Amino acid sequence: MTLETRSQTRPIGQTELRELLLSYRAENWGGIQTPEMQVQIAEAMLQPDAATVLGQVAQFWPIPPGAKILDVGSGAGGFVVACRQLGYRAFGVEPDRIGAGARLTSIQIAACRVASNVFASAVGEALPFPDDAFDLVTLNQVVEHVPDQSAVLREAVRVLRPGGALYVACPNYLRFYEPHYKVFWMPLLPKSLGRLYLRLRGRNPTMLRDIHYTTNQRLRRWLEAMGDEFEILDFHQELFARKCAGQGDFMSGKARLLKKAISFPLFGAALKALVLRWIRLSEGGCEMLVLRRDEGK
Predict the structure, then answer these.
(1) Looking at the domain assignment, is residue 84 inside a domain?
(2) Residue 145 carries which DSSP code?
(3) Does 2 fall in a domain?
(4) For residue range 37-50, what is the model confidence (pLDDT) as tens digits?
(5) What does residue 248 show for φ and ψ, rounded to 5 degrees?
(6) What pTM value is reported for the model?
């Protein structure tokens, strides 16, 4: 597959992009989120942002200059655009399930934002790229939308080069919140009850059909199945452990008190293990980095 084929003379401007994003949100997210929330999200999408994800990754894995990056589930392309502005060779894959059959799809919007053909219409279960093709692969709020989550993760590590990194973030459905509808939600609520609940709240339950519950434990289990070639880092647990070891400090008084308690020799280790377990269960989102070992080094 040729990724750098020229597709247009120049990207569209911000005014036209805003109109496309607002039209896309209204057509594909009507009844899922409030109109006010859709406008807020569309405005946020106008400003490409890569710093949040790349900043998290860089804490544990040095991103090479000019790294080749693949964003699986790239949506309207904001992350890919931002990465390319930073000098990275970034590409996106998007099946656009929400927009299937719609007048306007997110991948069409993404293609208008850059002058090169860097977006592919494909599913995560069958990525159209060779083995070992990318330095960094990102799956940001994507795994919960795919029917075969382990297959998507296997494909992501297949196209990852030795020594590369895979970033995965998704909701933790042990939380009392549904992040797409942005409503209170019982943990792992059965879909039949969820559809009824959404209708009672005046929401369109269509998207619930394509949401597959994720939890920290399930994500870890899928990643561990990849084998010993991969090292798994849980951001929330790693950052907590680093702060307990003196690399940074906690903002809240309760957390600082907990840090002191963990330092006691008699019960500190057991308390730390309990806290790490609690973090795994209670965090609102799962965020992990998978490092592929380079056996040649």
Answers:
(1) yes
(2) G
(3) no
(4) 989 999 999 888 99
(5) 95, 175
(6) 0.87
